[in-house]
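Q: Here's a chain of 149 amino acids. Please give me its 3D structure as tokens.
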Amino acid sequence: MTAKKSAKTDATATAETVVANAQEQVEKAQKAAFKSYEDLASFNKDALDAVVQSGTIVAKGYEAIGKEMMSFTKSTLEANAAVTKALFGVKNLREAFDVQSEYTRDSFDKAMAESAKLTEMSFNVAKEAFEPIQTRVNTAVETVMTRAA
């Protein structure tokens, strides 16, 4: 009977060891899963923050571009009014031709300068808006490379 008790005690001890080891493994796996979930949640939050920051930069940039376009439109309308007034005061066809030629040349030069300015502003907005996203991508690549190593 002692052998039976000893075998029963050994079996119980073995079963308790197996259960304890299984419980320990489950706890480790659970901690790893929650850690991974927390990392994923943090990564997604940071990515969303980068997108929001990028969107804010785009909105502010296009607001500035819109203001610039309105300013250009206002100055163009003022120049149109001045030319119209000047044309009403001409005394002959030659003066009208000269006023119109000067206005056309000035308008073209101003339009080209404004176009270059708006192009530069648009490029800068795009570059600045991409920076937060690029930073997030770089961070994600570094994280993946670190974990893979």
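Q: Can you summarize the key feature?
A: Residues 119 and 143 are 36 Å apart (CA to CA).
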